[in-house]
Amino acid sequence: MAGVKTVYDHIRSNNIKTTLLVIAFPLIFIALIFLFTWIVVPAQDAFQVAVNVAIPTFIACVVWLIISWAFGDSMMLHSAHAHEISDADPQYKQVFRAVENVALMAGLPCPRVYIIDDDSMNAFATGRNPRDATVALTRGIIKKLDRLELEGVIAHEMAHIGNRDIRLDMLLITGVGVTVFAADMILRLAMFGGGGNNEDNKNSGAVVLLMVWLAFMVFNWIITPLLRMAISRNREYAADATGAQITHNPRALANALRKITTDARVECLDKVKSMSAVCIAYPGGPREFVSSLMATHPPVEKRIERLESMAE
Fold first, then answer.
1. φ, ψ dihedrals at 243, nearest 5°
2. Distance in angstroms (rounded) separating the CA atoms of residues 301 and 292
3. How big is the CA angle at 30 (ends 198 and 63), to the nearest 5 degrees?
4. Could you identify which of 176, 194, 242, 277 might form a hypothetical disulfide with 296, taking C-beta atoms 3.0 to 4.6 angstroms apart as the criterion?
5. What is the Cα–Cα distance from 180 to 20, expressed in whole angstroms?
6. What are the pLDDT digits (tens) for 88-120?
7. Which of 151, 157, 199, 288 is catalytic?
8. What whole-number distance in Å separates Cα of residue 15 and Cα of residue 24?
9. Inter-residue long-range contacts of 42-45, CB under 8 Å, 24+ positions, other chains counted
10. Active-site residue 157, yes or no?
């Protein structure tokens, strides 16, 4: 009989995934640029183009990662229009107590608590480490879930904090943000002719830039979603299981997920697609078939089924 995974197992697993991600992203990125540009220029030139594009992109990623590490939690909370509460706020006193109780059961420092002014039901966690973490809850999730269900949701978010998922999220969000911006800049350059002193050089440069842009598009819209899907889905299952272990009540979290999926859309996050992975449920509008296949969250029915099997 296989042993039950502990929090430390999930932390170790996420550390390995982070390392593999750091290795895989640049290697795949360089390979794509090389292969696409190789279609229009010799291999040696294609390799040089790949290096010339990769170096500034990686530098931008590192700079943006440092900025995200320092201010990422504030940016996410600002995007969600969230505001902090304390135990002195009578309106949310019970919510703050619930967070304190779950943090105590999880053996983690009590995070800051923020409220998102939206009547839908959703939640997310952010922060650089467990000592500097935040749990954000929508106004709707507080109103529409009972105490045990809300504790289940909080435990799920505390599991993300304890499992060091936030660091992995930050790495993914940063990488995607930089490469999407870079792709837009490269397309603009290609449209203006790609530089050069004469018409032939301009046309040749524009073609190379167009192939680089195509490589970026494949990376941003196919490779990255596949990697995120593979990592995030397993991570959500792990957070569900860890959260259920914290509260010793997997059925409460299963019931909460049933309710949440009926109204999980957070309108202010509609245009912040990168934050969908950090929420307990997809915060956007109705999904199209393709976006469902590439979703960072596993189907809620499977999550509920796994939680209810833990309660048997």
1. -60, -40
2. 14
3. 95
4. 277
5. 21
6. 888 899 999 999 999 999 999 999 999 999 999
7. 157
8. 14
9. none
10. yes
Backbone torsions φ then ψ of 126, nearest 5 degrees: -150, 175
The secondary structure of residue 296, as a DSSP letter, is S
* Rounded Cα gap, residues 56 and 65, in angstroms: 14
- In which residue are the tokens 């800049």 written? 185
Lateral strand order in the sheet of 133-138 = 82-85, 112-116, 133-138, 123-127
Name residues whose C-beta falls within 8 Å of residue 5's C-beta, 6 or more positions apart in sequence.
Answer: 13, 238, 241
Distance CA 72, CA 128 (A): 8
Q: Which backbone phi and psi does 123 adopt, to 5 degrees?
A: -165, 155
Per the structure block, which two tokens stand in for 155?
């435990």
Q: Please tell me whether the overall predicted TM-score, pTM, comes out greater than 0.85 for this model.
A: no
Helix, strand, coil % (nearest 5) of the chain?
70, 5, 20
Each residue of 121-172: pLDDT tens digit? 999 998 878 888 999 999 999 999 999 999 999 999 999 988 878 777 777 7
Beta strands, E only, the chain: 82-85, 112-116, 123-127, 133-138
- The answer to whether 297 and 251 have CB atoms below 8 angstroms apart is no
Beta-sheet pairing, 82-85 with 133-138? unpaired
Q: What's the CA gap between 310 and 195, in Å, rounded?
A: 62
The one-letter amino acid code at 289 reads F
- List beta partners, residue 135: 113, 125
Return the closest-CA partner of residue 99 out of 123, 75, 128.
123
Orientation of helix 165-191 relative to helix 224-247, angle to 10°: 160
